[in-house]
Amino acid sequence: MIDNFRHKGMRKRLVEQLAEKGISDQRVLEAIMNVPRHFFLDNAFAKQAYSDTAFQIGAGQTISQPYTVAFQTQLLEVEKGDKILEIGTGSGYQASILCEMGAKLYSIERQRELFLKAKNLINELGYSPKLKYGDGFEGWEAFAPFDKMIITCGAPYIPEKLVEQLNNGGKMVVPLGAGPVQEMILLTKSKNGEVSQRSYGKFRFVPMLKDTEK
Ligand code: SAH
């Protein structure tokens, strides 16, 4: 896979567009500048990789629009060394952004084909998150608690187990809603474990589904 000056130029323009649309966390913009998004799409779509749109990644799933990735990542206020759980590895792009920002990342995907593909690609890029083929509704008990969580599929409700596995003082970003449109929720857990929520507008994700699929 090649990342040349043309790709870097397109990435720079994408970063400028995201900044214009209101993404102000420099670390998020830097990570988007550093991760070659075209690696996550089929070759035929290399150019479109740097337009601010979502794309099919196979198995009926999509890689989120760059603005959505940037928006969710910005809400998480990622710090180096944060232990983060992602639900919905998908293409592995969001996971790579979080790794690039220095997170200790754990990510779960329910579709085997996507899990395998993302694993290869993420490792090829030199990141080493822990990846799991499984159902995100269950969280990842063995490595809990997590400082932060990011759900990248539309959750019909906030999974109880995820809230339990979130550290006191932690935050979770979750697109909430059973229909085609979800409300972006930032859930925070106070130092003494009290949960509160704030809404950040409407987004569209593929649905969060139960169990795993071959
Ligand atoms: N973060 C991804 C976005 C992928 S789209 C990226 O950067 O490309 C959402 C993904 O969530 C899909 O791959 C879908 O298979 C997965 N998903 C849906 N329900 C899930 C669940 N219960 N557990 C884990 N993954 C799930």
How are the elements arranged and paired?
Layout lengths: L4 H16 L5 H9 L20 E4 L2 E3 L2 H11 L6 E5 L5 H8 L3 E6 L2 H13 L5 E4 L12 E6 L8 H5 L1 E11 L5 E8 L5 E9 L11
Helix pairs in contact: 1-2
Bound molecules: S-adenosyl-L-homocysteine (SAH).
S-adenosyl-L-homocysteine binds next to β2, α4 and β4.
Comma- or semicolon-separated keywords:
two-stranded antiparallel sheet, seven-stranded mixed sheet, 214 residues, alpha/beta, globular, 6 helices
Mean pLDDT, all residues: 96
Name of the CATH superfamily = Vaccinia Virus protein VP39
In the predicted model, the low-confidence regions spanning at least 5 consecutive residues are: none
| CATH structural class | Alpha Beta
Distinct ligands: S-adenosyl-L-homocysteine
Measured distance between first and last alpha carbons: 27 Å
